[in-house]
Design a protein that fits this description.
Largest sheet: none
Radius of gyration: 18 Å
Distance between the termini: 54 Å
Order of helices and strands: HHHHHHHH
Number of domains: 1
Number of helices: 8
Structural class: mainly alpha
Number of strands: 0
Strand content: under 5%
């Protein structure tokens, strides 16, 4: 049986050392290989626990989930829309209006090749693997959000760090309540796709119109 010390060391390697290593000026193989090994390790764990199966969440979660999403999305839309309007008004809905085909492709790629892997790693795996290390659920959610933000450190943007931390809090809270990778992935995709749609794409390392 693996001890909490072992799990703590594993967490340190996977969620702190590995993301920080991307900041080092080293050959890409020293980044790609450890990342691939870590991802395979996580997939094997999730496979053994049966957490890679697409299971629909319990019916009682759907209605409150959508009610909360509508409220949170409305707040996010107002704040980010105002931010883009004030900081870079020329970017407001720019990609959607000028390059709708690129806009559509990004939404699909982001949803299935970015959101889903992030959620199975930072929610499904993290919660199942390390839930016994921290008894306080709010502290656990906070730690998860910090580490989720750390994973985006290589992008070198304070805005990205801030948004991923806030997003991490929201996603961790949703997963804590529902234990559903599907629901938290839907939430993640909705917020992320909105940020790209409203015109924050280039600020968050998405492709621009040019």
């Amino acid at each position: 049986m693996q001890t909490n010390l072992y799990k703590g060391f594993e967490l340190f390697l996977l969620f702190i050392v590995l993301p920080v290593s991307f900041l080092l000026d080293s050959h890409f193989l020293f980044k790609v290989v450890p990342t691939a090994i870590g991802f395979i390790y996580i997939l094997v764990f999730l496979k053994r626990k049966g957490l890679l199966k697409l299971r629909l969440p319990n019916k009682e979660h759907w209605s409150p989930f959508w009610r909360e999403i509508v409220i949170k999305l409305a707040i996010i839309m107002m704040i980010t829309g105002l931010y883009v309007f004030l900081i870079a008004p020329d970017k407001l809905f720019l990609v959607m209006l000028k390059r709708p085909e690129l806009w559509g492709i990004i939404l699909l790629v982001y949803t299935f090749l970015s959101v889903w892997p992030q959620e199975i790693i930072y929610r499904a795996f993290f919660f199942e693997r390390y839930k016994g290390l921290v008894s306080n659920k709010w502290l656990f959610i906070f730690i998860n959000a910090i580490l989720f933000s750390l994973a985006h450190l290589f992008l070198g943007s304070f805005l990205v760090q801030l948004l991923t931390f806030v997003g991490g809090l929201l996603f961790a809270y949703t997963y804590q309540k529902t234990k559903s990778t599907i629901l938290v992935s839907i939430e993640h995709a909705i917020y992320g796709n909105w940020l790209f749609t409203v015109g924050m794409g280039e600020m968050l390392a998405f492709p621009g119109v040019e």
